[in-house]
Write a structure and sequence with these properties.
Helices cover 7% and strands 17% of the residues. By secondary structure, the chain is mainly β. The protein has a domain of 183 residues: ASAP complex, SAP18 subunit (Ubiquitin-like (UB roll), Roll). It comes from Friedmanniomyces endolithicus.
Length: 265
């Protein structure tokens, strides 16, 4: 079964939703390294990697059940309805919500201390009140519900961003300026100078499935249960082969981070 949903419309009456963890932060964009935690030696009683995250991160999160065709407009409506009071400014007109996917790089080597490398990917941004929003002091300008008038990339879906079940969504909330104008998009983040992985360039293309599990990616996207088998840290099979095909003769069949006991897929 593919863990990467399609970006096509979903028959929601026939397909069960998946669990989506959304982490939020005000004014400061969460770093992928915030989600990199070294797993304990014994993971028997740990069913969810997210339980290992620092308390400061877990306290600012919500659980949403949705589908791959969930748009940013729909996601914004769900998220804002669950945020604690005071997180969004009042009125919220001019507030920008910037969304990103955060997930482990399943092909990266472990870092010092057993931590895996995590990366992020832009998902899109939404502006409360529309792209031309400007609060002028009229309390009625808030328009009632936050999601009644949204601007930005409201129609972009999780499937459009090649979301994989188990990815995290992070949302950075930028309130409007003192003059009521929309908060500008944050500048692109440069890689840390001392990051030994910075020279690797962008992350590899997304795959269907979990990838390596704890051994190489720093944590399963869904949990631990029985996925840490053979092939842990082995080199990829040599030759030209595709996912789902048997590796060519003479390859080690180590699974290349698939964590499935040496299976070639």
């Amino acid at each position: 079964m593919s863990l990467q949903p399609t970006n096509r419309p979903v028959e929601r009456d026939a397909i069960a939703p998946f669990l989506l963890r959304v982490y939020w932060q005000q004014n400061r964009e969460p770093m992928p390294t915030d989600f990199s935690v070294a797993p304990p030696a014994d993971t028997t009683d740990i069913s969810d990697y997210s339980s290992l995250l620092p308390l400061a991160i877990r306290q600012k999160s919500v659980i949403i059940y949705s589908w791959s065709d969930c748009s940013l407009a729909e996601l914004t409506g769900l998220l804002t309805s669950m945020l604690p009071a005071g997180v969004l400014p009042s009125p919220a007109v001019g507030t920008r919500l910037v969304y990103k996917l955060v997930f482990p790089d399943t092909r990266a080597e472990l870092r010092e201390g057993g931590k895996g490398k995590w990366v992020d990917k832009p998902l899109g941004s939404v502006v409360v009140g529309g792209n031309e929003a400007h609060f002028n002091g009229d309390e009625d300008a808030n328009g009632g519900a936050v999601t009644e008038n949204l601007g930005g990339e409201t129609g972009r879906t999780l499937g459009d961003a090649r979301f994989v079940i188990g990815d995290y969504v992070v949302c950075t909330i930028y309130p409007p300026g003192q003059d009521g104008r929309i908060a500008a998009m944050p500048l692109s983040r440069a890689p840390p100078r001392m990051d030994p992985y910075a020279a690797r360039g962008p992350p590899p293309p997304r795959e269907n499935g979990y990838g390596s599990g704890f051994g190489r990616g720093g944590g399963y996207r869904g949990g631990y249960s029985g996925r840490g088998g053979g092939g842990f840290g082995a080199a990829p099979p040599v030759g030209d082969w595709r996912r789902g095909e048997r590796p060519p003769p003479g390859s080690n069949g180590g699974g290349y981070g698939r964590g499935r006991g040496g299976r070639p897929y």
